[in-house]
Every structure is written in structure tokens, then in C-alpha cells.
């Protein structure tokens, strides 16, 4: 019981402290752009009503999900091909390094030219930014399949789909998940940015809209919503990761116990 | 028909202007149901030889025949037990799944697979470990799982590449007895590669001594110890000492690079 309380204390102490500091520091603020936290929180339930959740948060989430899923499928598929063949890798690597170095937000105007200003554009922007960490990590993971495991698979005639599904991808999964995790935060950033350019709904759109109409406390609530959303998605990600990579964490723990 | 025929096997590695002749000319046979140990000085190309036999490497010359069929890729009639058990078992699969995976590839029915898996695990003494992950087991137990996987595969020939080099001495003794027990019980053909002379003499019906690299067969030696062997008595038997001394001398002369003059099948006199 004491230990549980202590854990709860450690989890909550810093957030509570930070909110407290914000609350006190902004309490007597008369600056329009920096409203007291009290005001922001009071605005919150008025702004984020059920209607708004459906009209702005839901579309944002759907675009994020679609873009992220496209990036995950494409990244893992292409990464597996590149990682499996040394020649393909030598051929693609310089281009990959270049494409990865292009900051994804700069693609928004470009993609807008081709994909218009609808959902397709936003999904394409999210996917084109998320795909790189997934792809590059998959390449590394697939490359790093242990040679003894690869030989074991070969000697037992495990080839084709079974080799891919049961050996290569499983062995690369810790790396793939590292890529997916990076891609998630990039995805949230691009979701917001793409909605700031040309949109009629979405969380990013709402924040810009509030800022332009000087509804400053509303703008701050939008930022809080984005923070909470990121936190929530990261929690979901962790739960999934712990399920899929349970073996990996166990393996590492056992390696630490007996080096 | 011989279970395994290696004739004129030669392997030369070429790369970046360097030519390394790992195996020069190897010829030997293994009969069905035989337990043969290959022993040689360290770095003598034992692993190269084994990989050529298992179809994992293409030999530069000569050939390997498994039950009359030329090996040109991993043959379904051969199962491997690697030295690095920790890297040979898949850590994302439970023990049972590890044993079952090659069987799925063979296209066996689910019922048959389950039967083979539980039978194999039982015969290595791990009947109740099917649900554990390999990394939850000790090193010796992990190697037992690898042996079970090979048994369930029902190979004509079982290849073991220094399987006990990485486990402690007591576990090793247990595993040696396990292998001998399985061999006698199931009548499988085993080719066991080791660098440990005592292990080779204790386990084998026949010991093939390899020369230093580039490898040739230095000597073939019949181990005329009784079939009933145990760690306590066999290892202190005078004949065991004679045989191990003989193999030891052969390996020493192999290291010095002077091939012995007696390449015969006859063991040294009593």
C-alpha cells in the first residue's frame, strides 16, 4: 500500500507542481495573450463540447490514423525489401538519407499542389513525414537479424512467408517499434501543421482560428487538448508495445540478470 | 546404402584478394544408425565442413550425399543443433512453438505436430516447459530445447556443431548422456562435431580425427568401448585412457602439420 502511494506520488508530483506554478504565475496576469490558467480552464468545457469533439477532434484523429497507418505499412514493407538485399540498400541509401533530411512540414505546400486541400493532402503529409523513421528503423532491424538465427531458419527449411513472418519481422520488431514511436510524435506535429494551412476543421484549424479571432483562452485550451492527446496516444502505444514486445523486455531483463 | 557420404569435399574462401583453403580434401562415410564424432584442432574447418554438409555453404569441390541424394541446399532429412543455443532458438516464441515451427513448414497436420512436439520435449526431459520462453530457461535447458526441435523434425541425420561447448561441465555431462540415450533409444544417425577429445571418445562409436586447416581426414578410429557407457566408469576405464591418449597424439601431430602415416581404420593395439 505504501509503495503504491509512493508510486502515485512520483507519477503525479511533477505535473501537479508545474500546473501549480503555471496557476500562480499567471493568476494576476492582465496580459491578453497570457491569460490566467483559471480563465483558460473555465473556458475549456465551453470550447470542447461534444459537438466540437465530433467536428474537429474526430476528423483530426481519423486523418492521423489514416496517415500513420499508410506510413506504417509502406515503411515496413519497403524497409523489409531494402534491408533484405544488400544491392538494393547500396542503391537506395543516398536517396533515403536525402529524403529523410527534408523537413516534412516543407512538403505541405508541395503536396497541396498535387493533392489539393482536402483530407487526401493532410493524410499524404502525415504519411510522408511518418514513413522515414519507420522505414529506416525497419531497414536496420531487418539487416541485423542474427546470422545464427538466419542459418537455423535456413537449415530447417523455413523460407518464404514463414521466414518473413516468424523470423525476420519478429526479430526486427523492437527496431520497428522504435521507428513507430518516433513516427507517432511526428504524425501529431504534421496533423496540426497540415490543418493550419488549408482546412475547415481539425484541432490545428481550431487553434489558429482562436488565435486569429483573439479568443486567446480558447487557443490555450487547444494547446492543452493537443498535449493531452499526445499523452493519451503515447499511453495506448505503450500498452500495444508491451503486448507485442513482451518477449523482448523479458529477454533483456534475463540478460541483465545473467550477463 | 550409406546414410551420409562425403567425398572429395573442398572449400576455398575467396575474398578481397585473399584465398583461404579451409577444407582441402575430405572423404568419409557415416552409416545409418551410427554415432560418429568429428574432432580436430581448433580452427580446423569443422564448422565449414558441417555447413557444407548441411547445405548452408556450397563446397568448392567434391560433394555430400545424404541417403544417396546430392546435397545442394538444406535437405529436409537433416537437422542441425548449433553451439549458440541462445541465438539459435527464437526468443519471441515459446519453447513449444520453437519446436513446432519447422514442422509447420513441413506441412504436417496439427495433431501430428502436437504429438511430435510433446514427444520430443518429453524425451529431453522438458515436458512441462512448452509454455516457457527460451530465455526463461538455463543454458543447458535451452540446448535441450534445440535438441528437441531437431528430434521432432525426424531427420535421417542429426548434425551437432559443438553443441555443449558453451555449457558448464556438469550440465555437459548430463547432455552427453542425453545424446547417447536418445541415440540408443531412437536409432538415429548422429554426426557430432567437437573439439573436446574426451567427449568425442566418450560419445562416439567412431571418431574421425581431422587435420589442421586446410583440412583432411587425419585418422579414423573405432571406439571399442562397450555400448553401455556412463560418466563414472567409462571415463576411468583403461581402454578409454588409451583411446583418448591416441586421439590426443593424433591431434598434436595434426597441429604440428605432420600427417600420421597410419590412416587406417584399426585402433591402436591393446
Briefly say what this structure is:
Chain A has helices at 2-26, 37-47, 50-84, 86-101, 107-115, 119-143, 147-155, 160-197, 203-212, 216-244, 246-257. Chain A has 259 residues and is mostly helical. The model of chain A has no long low-confidence stretch (mean pLDDT 91).
Helices and strands in order, then pairings?
The complex is a heterodimer of chains A (259) and B (270).
Chain A: H1 2-26, H2 37-47, H3 50-84, H4 86-101, H5 107-115, H6 119-143, H7 147-155, H8 160-197, H9 203-212, H10 216-244, H11 246-257
Helix pairs in contact in A: 2-10, 3-4, 3-6, 3-8, 5-6, 6-8, 8-9, 8-10, 9-10
Chain B: E1 4-15, E2 18-30, E3 35-39, H1 46-53, E4 61-66, E5 69-70, E6 78-81, H2 85-88, H3 95-106, H4 110-123, H5 139-152, E7 157-161, H6 169-186, E8 189-194, H7 197-203, E9 206-210, E10 215-222, H8 231-234, H9 238-256
Parallel strand pairs in B: 2-10, 3-8, 3-9, 6-7, 7-8
Antiparallel strand pairs in B: 1-2, 1-4, 4-5, 9-10
Helix pairs in contact in B: 3-4, 3-5, 4-5, 7-9
How many strands in all of chain B?
Answer: 10
* Amount of beta strand of chain A: under 5%
**What is the rounded Rg of chain A?**
23 Å
H-E string of chain A: HHHHHHHHHHH
Amino acid at each position: 500500500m505504501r509503495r503504491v502511494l509512493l508510486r502515485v506520488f512520483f507519477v503525479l508530483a511533477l505535473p501537479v507542481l508545474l500546473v501549480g506554478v503555471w496557476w500562480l504565475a499567471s493568476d494576476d496576469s492582465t496580459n491578453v495573450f497570457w491569460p490566467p490558467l483559471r480563465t483558460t480552464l473555465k473556458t475549456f468545457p465551453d470550447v470542447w463540447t461534444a459537438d466540437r469533439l465530433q467536428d474537429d477532434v474526430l476528423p483530426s484523429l481519423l486523418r492521423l490514423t489514416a496517415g500513420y497507418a499508410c506510413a506504417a505499412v509502406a515503411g515496413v514493407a519497403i524497409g523489409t525489401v531494402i534491408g533484405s538485399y544488400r544491392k538494393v540498400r547500396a542503391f537506395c541509401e543516398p536517396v533515403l538519407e536525402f529524403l529523410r533530411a527534408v523537413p516534412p512540414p516543407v512538403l505541405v505546400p508541395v503536396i497541396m499542389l498535387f493533392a489539393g486541400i482536402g483530407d487526401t493532402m493532410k493524410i499524404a503529409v502525415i504519411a510522408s513525414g511518418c514513413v522515414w523513421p519507420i522505414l529506416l528503423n525497419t531497414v536496420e532491424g531487418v539487416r541485423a537479424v542474427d546470422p545464427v538465427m538466419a542459418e537455423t531458419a535456413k537449415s530447417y527449411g523455413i523460407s518464404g512467408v514463414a521466414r518473413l513472418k516468424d523470423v525476420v519481422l519478429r526479430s526486427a520488431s523492437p527496431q520497428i517499434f522504435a521507428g513507430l514511436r518516433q513516427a507517432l510524435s511526428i504524425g501529431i506535429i504534421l496533423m496540426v501543421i497540415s490543418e493550419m494551412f488549408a482546412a475547415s476543421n481539425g484541432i490545428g484549424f481550431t487553434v489558429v482560428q482562436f488565435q486569429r479571432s483573439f479568443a486567446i483562452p480558447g487557443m490555450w485550451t487547444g494547446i492543452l487538448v493537443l498535449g493531452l492527446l499526445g499523452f493519451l496516444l503515447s499511453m495506448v502505444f505503450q500498452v500495444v508495445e508491451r503486448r507485442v514486445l513482451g518477449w523482448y523486455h523479458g529477454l533483456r531483463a534475463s540478460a541483465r540478470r545473467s550477463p | 546404402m550409406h546414410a551420409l557420404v562425403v567425398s572429395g569435399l573442398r572449400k576455398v574462401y575467396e575474398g578481397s584478394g585473399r584465398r583461404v583453403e579451409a577444407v582441402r580434401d575430405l572423404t568419409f562415410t557415416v552409416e545409418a544408425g551410427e554415432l560418429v564424432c568429428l574432432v580436430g584442432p581448433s580452427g580446423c574447418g569443422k564448422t565449414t565442413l558441417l555447413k557444407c554438409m548441411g547445405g548452408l555453404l556450397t563446397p568448392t569441390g567434391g560433394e555430400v550425399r545424404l541417403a544417396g541424394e546430392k546435397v545442394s541446399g538444406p535437405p529436409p532429412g537433416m537437422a542441425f543443433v548449433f553451439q549458440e543455443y541462445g541465438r539459435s532458438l527464437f526468443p519471441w516464441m515459446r519453447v513449444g512453438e520453437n519446436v513446432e515451427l519447422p514442422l509447420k513448414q513441413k506441412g504436417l497436420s496439427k495433431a501430428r505436430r502436437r504429438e511430435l512436439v510433446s514427444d520430443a520435449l518429453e524425451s529431453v526431459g522438458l515436458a512441462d516447459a512448452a509454455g516457457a520462453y527460451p530465455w526463461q530457461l538455463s543454458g543447458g535447458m535451452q540446448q535441450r530445447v534445440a535438441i528437441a526441435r531437431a528430434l521432432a523434425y525426424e531427420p535421417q541425420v542429426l548434425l551437432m556443431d559443438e553443441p555443449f561447448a558453451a555449457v558448464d561441465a556438469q550440465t555437459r555431462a548430463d547432455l552427453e548422456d542425453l545424446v547417447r540415450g536418445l541415440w540408443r533409444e531412437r536409432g538415429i544417425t548422429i554426426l557430432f562435431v567437437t573439439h573436446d577429445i574426451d567427449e568425442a571418445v566418450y560419445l562416439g562409436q567412431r571418431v574421425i580425427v581431422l587435420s589442421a586447416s586446410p583440412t583432411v581426414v587425419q585418422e579414423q578410429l573405432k571406439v571399442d568401448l562397450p555400448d553401455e557407457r556412463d560418466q563414472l566408469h567409462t571415463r576411468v576405464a583403461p581402454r578409454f585412457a588409451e583411446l583418448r591418449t591416441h586421439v590426443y597424439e593424433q591431434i598434436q601431430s595434426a597441429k604440428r602439420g605432420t600427417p600420421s602415416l597410419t590412416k587406417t581404420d584399426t585402433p591402436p593395439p591393446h
